[in-house]
Amino acid sequence: MNITRREFSRLVVLSAGVQLLPRISALAEDRTIGYCIVGLGRISMQHFMPALKMSKKARVTALVSGHRDKAERMAAEYGVPSSSIYNYENYDAIAKNPNIDAVYIALPNSMHAEYTIRGAKAGKHVLCEKPMATTVEEARAMVLASETANRKLMIAYRCQYEPVHLRAVQLIREGKLGTIQSIESAFGFPIGPNEWRLDQKLSGGGPLVDVGIYCLNASRYLTGEEPAELKGFSSVVDRDGRFAQVEETLSWTMKFPGGALASCTCTYGSAMRGYFRVRGSSGTITVDPAFNYDNPRLVAQFEGGGTEELAPAEPDPAQFLREADHFADCILLNQQSKTPGEEGLRDVSLIAQIYRSCERRNS
Amino acid sequence: MNITRREFSRLVVLSAGVQLLPRISALAEDRTIGYCIVGLGRISMQHFMPALKMSKKARVTALVSGHRDKAERMAAEYGVPSSSIYNYENYDAIAKNPNIDAVYIALPNSMHAEYTIRGAKAGKHVLCEKPMATTVEEARAMVLASETANRKLMIAYRCQYEPVHLRAVQLIREGKLGTIQSIESAFGFPIGPNEWRLDQKLSGGGPLVDVGIYCLNASRYLTGEEPAELKGFSSVVDRDGRFAQVEETLSWTMKFPGGALASCTCTYGSAMRGYFRVRGSSGTITVDPAFNYDNPRLVAQFEGGGTEELAPAEPDPAQFLREADHFADCILLNQQSKTPGEEGLRDVSLIAQIYRSCERRNS
Q: Which of B181, B227, B263 lies closest to A248 in CB terms?
């Protein structure tokens, strides 16, 4: 059976946080949330900012960039006054800008902690890209800084707001798969040379922190559990200079308290379309592609022959719009986001454990 | 591009062991190999014996069973004289039967060693189902017994004779994928209660020894290497009494000397269509389904956009015919099979290592 239009609409509502809606509708007319975009790279300029153009709840009100020319161009496009363009030195001056409610941190990973903490100290809410940080200590400091400043911190786990992923979780919670036995997931792409992602100081790791984190995070929200144990291996096979500092490929296995085993693989070595497959005692769900910016596709097969397909046509940047609006709702209603700093911290901590496991020889 | 008929024919020839063919064609007219079937279970009666009906090189000449009635019925069907029906007590009397060249061991795993060794001592070549044995010691004793008796021992790794698998290996060896980075593979089925496979004493293990061995063996022939390290987890989630003695699901990762990482999952808990996916720096090969008795399907994608598909229509028991004929050729020409006892021993040894790893906590 295919999902009906009505069921899909219900999922979309669910994904926006259905409990918030009645109050939002009144509030949303009053004001919108102003985002200060920190870092004008691909994810900001091609995805997050275009999403805000479509938003009724949020808009771009300020920019932070080391490239004034680029910032001026984007400011013109988004109607941001020149006085609301900042650089990395005078970033703290955002404190005095009442048009900024929140900052969106889209910098190399190693800068997430500093700019999140400075943002919170400037009195702003923070939406930070994943991985939240390059160390557990940084991630803890970010959570603490947000708490101390009484500001919100959300990590940009867009898939946790995406209807196809939410449907997978819903089917599992409703028991349609029985008990979860195993998860297989992979994600990767062939990285070019000279990317900041290959610089350990900037990235804090290789494909694990960048794309493997999708498999990790999905395994956690699909099972609804935290892994009890994990074991991994990392490797480099392409000796062309790209992988002098970070791993090329990493495979790891996690065991969850309920007994589910998750096998995950990530790579910078080849095109590995992101997917996951969840198998239970009474059914299987495959989402493939799963982690792209658009067109996720769910196929579920249940014991007894039932099936379900869900492949909504939602072009990019719908997923970014959803996460930007969710955080705007949280700010307007003073509620915690679904993916707060603590959620990012868990992944950062698990990533550190996976790297430690890779260093151990266990054969 | 799809593979041409001529190319496929070449693969089929390759799979029969091309170097043997010129001499076989002369020999094959002279005589056929007589197989004594040891154990009249599903794999014998529904697959191996029907395959021999199609063979020009081999035939069923004797039976060993604990069920005389069943043996009489099968003997009638295959033209086996009553005098060539044995039971487990008088099995050694096959030594005096000149119509038996080889025995085919299709018994519960824990009986493989004894009946292989007794077969070799009776002067017969042995084709033994996988897993070869339940312990490394047994497997070593089997190899030794065959050597001592100067008889051949082949393990029934049918996929190593199958054109789609051989094409995958060929593409890899020709460098079409560049360097192998990762392998993902899984295989499983929902087991019924009361199967001998669930009895540790008979099976020697759960899905790992039964279906996971396909993923393990494939990872080895695809890379052409032996794993340098491995780490695994096993689990039981269905507490319905089936998994009191063996694992329900097992996931493990292997690191190969060349750097390839293989992630494998096997289960008795759900239908997990057997597949493998090999990713390299310049291409990907998926064989899905891979391990069924029929209809394997290969899809390869190469850097630059080239593709290849191979999905020959070869109904069961073609794969059994091929392995039976390969061993017949080996006997006729006094050559070593492609999957001798040593090949089975390697898997048995790795399986023991995987189980030991599952007992260790490594988080």
A: B181
